[in-house]
């Protein structure tokens, strides 16, 4: 292993450093002055129309001398990043071999083998690309740096250069961001916490996950004991130190939650240094007009809003809470909540897929299924109703009956195929028909799943970044829509037609905006969370309202639908209404009696206009003058002929995802 890993690398470095001065064939930069940190350029983020949204996290760095940095920080960094720092000449063959052995033993990349000097060379003078050539350059530069500068100068440059998260570059900026003090004033516990950040600033930040930050701090302290810098008694004192964070400063930036969302994605691909100071240009799917409307909609209510173009998955707006300065938790993706009745469309989609029609009848009545007795929100029952009426009025008993008939396992399978990842085996029960999931769903995943209803049965996965250019204008990445089919267009359209009725004369009438729109309300037990997921052909907007502490929010899905209507009126202002595309073999506008499922029934108190696959629509009833006795007899005959208590008339296959 010494021969395979270490020897060739050492030979190359010797040749570069001593035989070929400067190693010019590798194109190495100069390393004359570590104090002159290279000028950095902020990454620019643009919306879908090319409008600049923000410069992504302007670099925050305050350069200080090694004498103004707490010795604890210096010791903690060395003990945990490069224990042989004072003994090697830039690269550490022993450390490389040890890292390889550990990685083989653990089956992972648990150890990196890079010295502090190598890390400094990479971050100051090279890119983050993972290639053998870059690794050779890094090693050669490390040896050159070690020949030119003292260990203290190298350590000083490293501590001033390394990224600690939260936009803080260098230990002085980090000390101020996290603890509101100078780096010379840091205690042992604070120093250990900061020293644990460079390996994962987005993982170990105490602002993001305090428990993870404390666990990492304790690991750093153990490393310091192992290397003889501190004693066990000092560790005992350090772990008892109260954590007094300075608190995040307010950042008045538009689309802050969205910026964090894409920043996390970019950092995962290119590294924090490249993203935050590499002069990148990031072109996103965000639309400023839609974002402004979304940011205004919550008011003083806590919750989240996401807007997606169902035709391609482009995220047009993202609001992760009512106040970014108060809380940076992005509730669009991080909050998992019970969806309530907003989950019912999956049940009805399976029913349609199995051959039911919009006029199939379910009987709304008191039920008890093995001890499970769901109730309607108004504690009343309506008797026979169509499944379209059951959905538009969000009738719980009917949904449970339908779930039992179509099979909850089929409902869960469809929801998973449509992108819901939080479903577990324990959800295979009738409460799922009402959205009573064990874990719940995120707003982003639920909204993404609804894109299939709006987009002819095709799920459009979320896309936030269209392309990224480097500082030279070269394309680093381009992203196209990622889509797959889960339902036939006929099923998706008929369900959309049913969801249009939710807004036209169902539980979401406040969402009416004077143009074709569809959606579903959801209200969980005790008004803990209220939802509305609604869409027009070109835009889908999901909103939930709910307190972080899960205390009742005091409003229903119907009231959230009013928020949706307010937002959509702003977004669509000045645009022409568009219709949902009707599949060629679907017929629309058939008048149906919602209490019997029959067509054109005389004296029906509730007429709804439904869509059918052509040839499956009920035939018109030809009424003629007759006695009351004859009419009753004829009605009985039609009841037998035209209503079949939710029995299938055809069957469509559920399409599995295709990539």
Text of the CATH class of the domain at 309-462 and 480-572: Alpha Beta
**Main sheet summary:** 5 strands, mixed
Number of strands: 18
Q: Strands of the largest sheet, in order across it?
A: 2-1-5-11-12
| Spatial separation of the terminal alpha carbons | 41 Å
Shape: elongated
Number of helices: 21
From the alpha-carbon coordinates, what is the Rg to the nearest angstrom? 31 Å
Structural commentary:
The chain has 659 residues and is of the alpha+beta class. Among the domains are: 2-29 and 61-239, Penicillin binding protein transpeptidase fold (Orthogonal Bundle); 309-462 and 480-572, 3-Layer(aba) Sandwich (Beta-lactamase). 38% of the residues lie in helices and 13% in strands. It contains 21 helices and 18 strands. It has helices spanning 2-19, 71-81, 93-106, 116-125, 132-148, 151-161, 171-179, 188-195, 210-226, 232-239, 256-270, 272-277, 288-297, 344-353, 387-392, 396-406, 408-417, 443-454, 489-505, 557-572, 628-642; strands at residues 43-46, 52-56, 60-61, 168-169, 281-284, 303-308, 315-319, 361-364, 383-386, 458-460, 465-469, 475-478, 483-485, 518-523, 530-536, 539-545, 586-593, 607-613. The strands form 6 sheets. A 5-stranded mixed sheet has the order 2-1-5-11-12. A 5-stranded antiparallel sheet has the order 7-6-16-15-14, with helices on both faces. A hairpin with a 5-residue loop joins strand 11 (465-469) and strand 12. Helix 14 (344-353) packs across helix 17 (408-417). The chain is elongated. 46% of the residues are buried. Mean pLDDT is 85; it is low at 1-9, 11-15, 17-29, 622-644 and 650-659.
């Amino acid at each position: 292993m010494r021969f395979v890993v270490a020897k060739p690398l050492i030979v190359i470095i010797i040749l570069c450093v001593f035989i070929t001065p400067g190693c010019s064939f590798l194109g190495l930069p100069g390393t004359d002055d570590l104090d002159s940190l290279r000028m950095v350029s902020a990454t620019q983020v643009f919306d879908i129309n090319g409008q600049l949204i923000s410069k992504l996290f302007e670099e925050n760095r305050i350069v200080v001398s090694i004498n103004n940095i707490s010795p604890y920080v210096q010791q903690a960094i060395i003990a945990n990043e490069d224990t042989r720092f004072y003994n090697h000449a830039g690269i550490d063959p022993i450390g490389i071999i040890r890292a390889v052995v550990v990685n083989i033993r653990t089956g992972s990349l648990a150890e990196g083998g890079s010295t502090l000097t190598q890390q400094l060379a990479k971050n100051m003078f090279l890119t983050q690309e993972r290639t053998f050539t870059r690794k050779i350059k890094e090693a050669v530069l490390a040896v050159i740096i070690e020949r030119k500068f003292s260990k203290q100068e190298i350590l000083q440059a490293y501590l001033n250069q390394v990224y600690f998260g939260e936009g803080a570059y260098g230990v002085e900026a980090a000390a101020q961001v996290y603890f509101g003090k100078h780096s010379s004033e840091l205690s042992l516990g604070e120093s250990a916490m900061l020293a644990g950040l460079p390996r994962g600033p987005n993982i170990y930040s105490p602002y993001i996950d305090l428990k993870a930050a404390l666990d990492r701090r304790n690991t750093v302290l153990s490393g310091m004991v192992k290397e003889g810098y501190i004693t066990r008694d000092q560790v005992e004192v350090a772990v008892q130190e109260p954590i007094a964070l300075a608190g995040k400063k307010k950042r008045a930036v538009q689309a802050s939650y969205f910026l964090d969302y894409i920043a996390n994605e970019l950092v995962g691909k290119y590294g924090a240094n490249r993203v935050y100071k590499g002069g990148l240009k990031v072109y996103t799917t965000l639309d400023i007009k839609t974002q402004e409307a979304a940011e205004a909609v919550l008011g003083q209510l806590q919750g989240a809003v996401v807007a997606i173009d169902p035709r391609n998955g482009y995220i047009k707006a993202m609001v992760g809470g009512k106040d970014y300065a108060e809380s940076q938790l992005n509730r669009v993706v991080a909050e998992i909540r019970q969806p309530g009745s907003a989950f019912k469309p999956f049940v009805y989609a399976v029913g349609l897929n199995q051959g039911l029609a919009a006029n199939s009848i379910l009987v709304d009545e008191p039920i008890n299924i093995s001890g499970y007795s769901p109730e309607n929100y108004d504690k009343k029952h309506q008797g026979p109703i169509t499944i379209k009426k059951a959905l538009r009025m969000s009738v719980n008993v009917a949904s449970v009956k339908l779930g039992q008939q179509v099979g909850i396992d089929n409902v869960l399978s469809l929801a998973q195929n449509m992108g819901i990842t939080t479903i577990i085996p324990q959800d295979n029960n009738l409460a799922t028909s009402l959205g009573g999931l064990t874990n719940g769903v995120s707003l982003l995943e639920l909204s993404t799943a609804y894109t299939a209803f709006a987009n002819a049965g095709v799920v459009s996965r979320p896309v936030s970044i269209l392309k990224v250019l480097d500082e030279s204008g070269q394309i680093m990445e381009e992203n196209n829509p990622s889509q797959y089919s889960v339902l036939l267009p006929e099923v998706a359209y008929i369900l959309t037609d049913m969801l249009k009725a939710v807004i036209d004369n169902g539980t979401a009438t406040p969402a009416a905006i004077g143009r074709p729109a569809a959606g579903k309300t959801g209200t969980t037990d005790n008004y803990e969370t209220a939802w509305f997921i609604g869409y027009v052909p070109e835009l889908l907007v999901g909103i939930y309202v709910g307190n972080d502490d899960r205390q009742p929010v005091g409003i229903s899905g119907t009231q959230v639908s009013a928020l949706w209507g307010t937002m959509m009126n702003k977004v669509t202002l000045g645009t022409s209404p568009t219709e949902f595309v009707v599949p060629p073999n679907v017929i629309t506008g058939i008048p149906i009696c919602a209490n019997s499922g029959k067509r054109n029934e005389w004296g029906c108190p509730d007429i709804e206009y439904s869509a059918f696959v052509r040839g499956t629509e009920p035939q018109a009833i030809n009424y003629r003058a007759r006695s009351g006795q004859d009419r009753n007899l004829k009605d009985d005959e039609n009841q037998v002929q035209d209503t079949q208590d939710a029995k299938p008339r055809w069957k469509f296959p559920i399409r599995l995802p295709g990539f």
